[in-house]
Specification:
Elements: H1 3-22, E1 28-29, E2 36-39, E3 44-51, E4 58-62, E5 67-71, E6 74-75, E7 82-87, E8 91-96, E9 105-111, E10 117-131, E11 140-143, E12 148-151, E13 154-157, E14 161-166, E15 172-175, E16 181-184, E17 187-188, E18 191-194, E19 203-210, E20 217-232, E21 237-240, E22 246-255, E23 259-264, E24 276-282, E25 287-294, E26 303-310, E27 315-324, H2 361-368, H3 386-399, H4 408-434
Parallel strand pairs: 2-10, 11-20, 21-27
Antiparallel strand pairs: 1-3, 3-8, 4-5, 4-9, 5-6, 7-8, 9-10, 10-13, 12-18, 14-17, 14-19, 15-16, 19-20, 20-22, 22-25, 23-26, 24-25, 26-27
Length: 435
Amino acid sequence: MSNKNLALAFLLMGMVANFQGHCNDLPRFSEPIPNVTVPVGRDIEFPCIVENLGNYRAAWLKIESKAILSIHQNLITRNYRISLSHSDNKNFVLHLKNVQKSDVGSYMCQLNTVPMMSQVGHLDVLFPPEISLKSSIADELVREGSNVTFSCLAKGYPTPKVTWRREDNRPILIQTSDGTTQYMDTYEGEHLGLVSINREHSGAYLCIAVNGVPPSVSKRLMLYVEYSPAITVPNGYLGAELKTTAVLTCLVDSFPSPRIYWVKGNGTGLNSGRKYDIKVSPAEEKKIEGILRIHNLQKMDLGVYKCLAKNLVGIAVAEIYLYELQPKTTTTKATTSEYFSLIVTAPEGGRNNISDDDDDSTAIATKLGTLEDSSIGEYYPLYEDASNIQKEANTRINSHGQSSVSNGWRGSQLGSPMYFFILSFLLTTTSEVIT
């Protein structure tokens, strides 16, 4: 039977009840039907309590769809989640299990009196946030300097609040309406606009939708920023001894990953083999390390080397100057002056890195003598303390009775031959100490 026929039959039953003499003793509702608000999936009930119902009938209807759910003690709807309980011709309770979005609306308990009597209770169903995948933009790949807008459209009841943050908790770099840039920990709104993208923008962004109904939901969106390589050289001036292996390195920051090439100063490209060993290894995020090993270093291998990095956006070049580092054993010369100045042979170029202990300029001059300047930036001199050499020489002279103070007569007696003997002894002794 259709809803229209059911409604007509229900009305006729009321007219019959009135005709039977109950018009002066009409029924009444003993309490109002409550409004109910619950999260989706819960069970709810609407009570309809009627006093003095007599021969009248109570029915449940859903107003929006005009569907008759029950008449008196009979359940009409075929919705398996809806049921009816009744007792004493007074209590008529409508039960809804596992409420869904489709259950939202107004529910009427109606009596077939003339005129009709009714009460209404409203059902609100709370829905947790849901991010629409069709309306939310996917991952983005953009070139540095471009603009991009991420959209994250969420629905639910109540209306969700959408918040953006970076997955690594770094601040979001946003350009404000006045053209200035501003770092923000979070940003609220369905649309996140990023202007003049640079490499700092790249990474994962989280769109989080919250409306107070658990669970909150999030979507992860990736922003990939293409940019030209940037090269960092840990040591632009590198010294190495001949016949050893020199190791040159360069660190490249780039996306997408670049190809790395090594070139000798005259433009000759280098390849891995017996002389050269070229490798690439991952370093920090989006960075790789280029390594060039030069085996059995010779004079001809010294000079400028170039690290080249190239990707589809651009190319970058950095130079490393490889110079000869002298062995750490150095020959010095001594004189017969009052103190002994030591001449140190430094590798070509560079300024000496003097120890922090050598604060006294006189001591430094005593130790080093003369130094050679150049543009390389650092070298490693070797020196000995001249004061120790002088002290030991004087001790040996005194032990042989050659002091001019206590044994001056011997000098006058021995004359020139003894003078040359002493000078010869001093030079020999000093040379032994230095060597």
